[in-house]
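call fold target=Protein translocase subunit SecY
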Amino acid sequence: MSLIENFQNIFKIEELKNRILYTIGILLIFRVGTFITMPGVDAATLAQSGAGPATDFLGLINLFVGGAFARAGVFALGIMPYITAAIIIQLMGAVVPYFQKLQREGEEGRRKINQLTRYGTVLITLIQSIGFGINLLATQPDAIVVSSTAFIINCMIVLTAGTVFVMWLGERITERGIGNGISLLIMIGIIAALPTNFMNEWNTQANAIIVFVEVAALVLVTASVVLLTQGQRRIPVQYARRVVGRKVYGGTTQYLPLRVNAAGVMPIIFAQSIMFIPSTFGMFFPTNETVQNLTRWSGDFTGLTYSIVFFLICVFFTFFYTAIVINPKEMADTMKRQGGFIPGVRPGKQTVEFIDNILTKITFPGALFLSTVAILPAIVANFGVTPGFAMFFGGTSLLIIVGVGLDTLQQVESHLMMRHYDGFMKTGRIKGRRRM
């Protein structure tokens, strides 16, 4: 069956078709919202100044929100405050007993955590909206048509409402659409900038062959990131045979999959959040020369100092986040309760040590590769690629696109397989369909 026929099968399933169309509709609403300029701003004057460079902190934010930041749109902060709040809550779950208790309470605990994340989103948005207003007043004073005080209050109200609305859109996609809504909103904002940045690269380069080489390199990098995302080490687990009445249970061999990049894109997001702190501080004091000199190094992602610090922080957070999401002791205990054991390894402490040893061995090269992908945009930018197009060679942008794309395709395949249709490809199946 051809790939085209497999895509046609999607629209033969009424529920799947409705979910996809619903998701597309929500994404269109989000994209329209990024072009609506907030009250108190002269859009024509702001447009004449152009967007900030993609190499600085503000340029990265603008990339993630689909250009709304440069246009002073009502969605200028996008979903990023929600991501920040979710990261803070998740980190607190590793050290604060109250949040650890919530994580163990099942559905009710998740509901409380989601509610706290929403409250945190509003608080973070209020703080960031003040910084946004101060920065715009300092850098684009001619575009502001109201008083400074009124504009700051306006930013707090409009941007907070915009972020809460975007958060609601993401939750609607997760509930009634296809894929993870929050991740899709980030991905669509990033992809929206690709055509413009590619045309800028095409117009900048004098030789078309160079552009083709760059595109080929981008394809290879993307393939490598897919391999990193899908790569795993499978540990064989043997389950003891049990006889209950006339039925025999167990006696089979299954596998415990340990992903090479168990942390996903989170280490880069954590590291980038840390790297944003100096630039965020400098955004509150745009006219202070001393503050700007101290924070300038963190505003240029192509700089050597930025790349070295970013690389090291990514390696650290890869191990840190992997330790949070994977608990070898819990794995060993679950395996023991179910009558499973790793051949040649004693249950209990030795199993914990064995899993921890394997996890460390596969996480180290994974951390190095992930950190290299994180600084790859800076490397290619120094070889003459325009900063906007260089952002798609690695870092958060590429990992989000690959990760969200694979997750969404896996959900679509699950719907197809449930209705006895083939997936997108009979060979090279998406991870969710791979036979164990």
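return ok
The chain is about 65% helix and 5% strand. Residues 193-393 form a domain with the Preprotein translocase SecY subunit fold (CATH 1.10.3370.10).
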